[in-house]
Amino acid sequence: MQDKPQNKGLTVNLVAIANHQLEKRKLKSFNELVQHLSDAHGRTALLGMLRGIEREALRIDESGYLATDSHPEALGSALMHSRITTDYSEALLEFITPVHNNVEQLLNGLTETHAFSVRHLNGQRLWPVSMPCYVKDEKQIPVARYGSSNTGMMKTLYRKGLTYRYGALMQIISGVHFNFSVSQELWQSLYELSDKQLSYDDFISESYFGLIRNYRRLVWVLPYLFGASPALCSSFIKDQKTDLKFEKTGHGTLYLPYATSLRMSDLGYTNKEQEELNISYNSLPEYLAGVNAAIKMPSANFANIGVKVDGEYRQLNANVLQIENEFYSPIRAKRVTRSGEKPSEALARAGVEYIEVRALDVNPFSPIGIEATQVRFLDLFLLYCLLTQSPKSEASEEARLSANLKAVVLEGRKPGLELLTANGSRSLKSWLEELFDALQPLAVLLDGEATDYQVALAHWRKAVEDPNLTLSGQVLQNVINKGQDHGQWVMTLAQQYYQFFVDYPLSSETIAQYQAEASSSLNKQAELEAAQRSVSFDDYLEDYFGAQS
Prior knowledge:
By secondary structure, the chain is an alpha+beta fold. The protein has helices at residues 3-26, 30-36, 40-46, 103-118, 150-166, 168-171, 184-193, 200-218, 221-226, 234-237, 284-294, 300-303, 343-350, 372-387, 395-411, 428-447, 452-465, 471-479, 486-503, 508-531, 537-546; strands spanning 50-60, 84-86, 92-96, 125-126, 176-181, 231-233, 247-249, 253-255, 308-309, 312-313, 331-334, 354-360, 418-421, 424-427. The protein contains 21 helices and 14 strands. Strand 9 (308-309) and strand 10 (312-313) form a beta hairpin. The chain starts with a helix and ends with a helix. Pfam families: Glu_cys_ligase.
């Protein structure tokens, strides 16, 4: 008689466990997760997103030609400054924001950095689009210089290697990178809904890789909406071989009538050597194994360049990737590195901390290259990628992803464009409509009593209905409909934005802060150069690459 209560209790416990597991299984779809997070705690967890922006911009003279002088000393050390640096070229500025939770503060800070910088360019302007123009001679494009420390010389040599490998023109294409992470509160909520087979930290890393896989499935959405390089100056093509059937307007503008982002086409950031790498995004360990193999993989083509010829370095090494940063991808898994630590070492040490979106053209209709409705759409889009089921990728899917991205980059606004799915093809427009419908409840949840996310979603939904309202559509309307050269139109914008930044109100306190960091960064560079003087560059490189073997 006493056995029955024990069995009954056990049965109740098993039923409770089964129901709990069933509840967790049910909360797997995007809509169900959004509903689950719809209380006050869930909304707060979702709104805890952190963002950072990196915006690249070429310095040009008053005639529109690429600047060839040194990085202005008033902006500090490009090696050590936290907000103002350079990318490939001495003329390619990169403005970096601190991490922000607030969209307005993020963009206001980026605007202040632009305004301070422009006032110290001796009358030079910033080129406000992704594709360069008015380059007299590719050989005159100055590679970025970072001083005499071994660290600085390695950064310069890496860029010199890029010149030998791909040419300098490709390296002065500008873009905007968007860094994104979600709150610990959201991770705690999602982890509680998981089966907890992974540790908390591993769960976060694997969830970010789920986001990355879904992003890669839908990355074509970003060039469709935000691609802003459907046209370019004919001087950019020069001796490059291309099968693209360009149309011409003005005196020297080439364009594709339905293109969205030539920056992301084979004319832009591509690396044929990397096509065979097959780096997997199915897990952090697989990704790290792929990256580590790539930086050790020899390249016959790059070996022909030579590494050190007649006592002078041409590149860091002859591998497919000189260093990890050479891996061109529209999204990256990231963690803030410690001093002397490589990106993959940081990921291996503590997992993924944030992701970096790299598929954004410079928005020519914003002085700072990006605006608030884009940021809020990216918030919604990336949360969707995170909260949606993300099966592992296979080779057959990779081919579809590549084909879809290429189709949208070259013909994204073409009426009736079809994209590939596992079950055949479907129209780009119907796919976008389905996505925007899915994002609407999330926008309502994030807004609460406000309307910012709903307004942003409605703004870009108009571009789904009318492709002329995409950024690329607006660019072509300004160029073709007005019968002007792309370069002339961009120069007009450059002048308008120059005046905008000159007139932008900067407080004396803000100016003093930028001046202090400029001075401090120069001192830090000098200290580093003094500290590394006793180690030869050869020994420094041997130690750096010896550590990864």
